[in-house]
Amino acid sequence: MKIRIVLVEPEGEINVGFVARVMKNFGFYDLALVKPKIKVEEAIQYASHGADVLKKANVYGDIEEAIRDFSLVAATSSKVSLGEDLLRIPITIRDFAKKISKIKNGKIAILFGKESVGLTRDEILRSHVLVTIPASEEYPSLNLSHAVAIVLYEIFSELYKIKSQVKTFEQPKPKEMEALLRNIDKAVEALKMPKHKEEKIKLVLKRIIGRALITRREAYVLSGFFRKVHVLLSGKH
Q1: Beta bridge partners of 195
Q2: Residues 25-82: pLDDT tens digits?
Q3: What is the structure's pLDDT at 84?
Q4: Domain boundary assignment for the chain
Q5: Is the dihedral of CA 117, 121, 122, 124 positive or negative?
Q6: Which residues of the chain have pLDDT under 70?
Q7: What strands lie across the sheet with 107-112, from one edge to the other?
Q8: May I ask the CATH class of domain 2-165?
Q9: What is the pLDDT of residue 106?
Q10: Stated pTM of the model
Q11: What sign results for the dihedral spanned by CA atoms 50, 52, 55, 61?
């Protein structure tokens, strides 16, 4: 299981150092920084024994570079919706951890936003699924390093359960997931609906597939289905 922690425009050296430290605590080593607002070398003093994680961190100019080789991308946020805002319908970190623990040789990137405002809507759109940490409605926003710690703890706990009790599955390759989403887009576009309705349906289908954490075989079947739908609707026999 390869887990990449992606910090998008982190603003504080202390938090970044603490993130590296907690990653080391739970045995995760792949840290990516997207347009950091800090001096990475100044964050090392706060990383303790996780300094090696921070020193090896990759720095990227945009999110797309940081997640390019990952089939599953999860965004994190305390701002969620019960249904009205389709982009912000989440699953809990515990449910997410249980699902990904069953992925064979998984490659998963988890996005965390800047300390002041979190992830923007555009940044969340780059993900397949939105993950949230249940917290008090009075004050649901967690400190960045605390949020990373909880997320990694839940994943660590699931990964280290008795292996014989966990049946694994293979997740789609990045190109296979891209092909599925592309075929969905083409099928929806072939319906020739108003643009705003078209975009809403595309988003709903993408989020449903993201929350389901489908297998490679399921992605193949769905991709073929939506490809046939596109052909039928567009009249290309």
Answers
A1: none
A2: 999 999 999 999 999 999 999 999 999 999 999 999 999 999 999 999 999 999 998 8
A3: 85
A4: 2-165, 172-234
A5: positive
A6: 162-167, 236-237
A7: 58-60, 30-34, 2-8, 107-112, 72-76, 129-132, 91-92
A8: alpha beta
A9: 85
A10: 0.83
A11: negative
**Structure tokens given for 133:** 């940490």
Q: What's residue 121's pLDDT?
A: 95
Instruction: Decide if 183 contacts 226 (C-beta within 8 A).
Output: yes
Q: Residue 189: what pLDDT?
A: 94
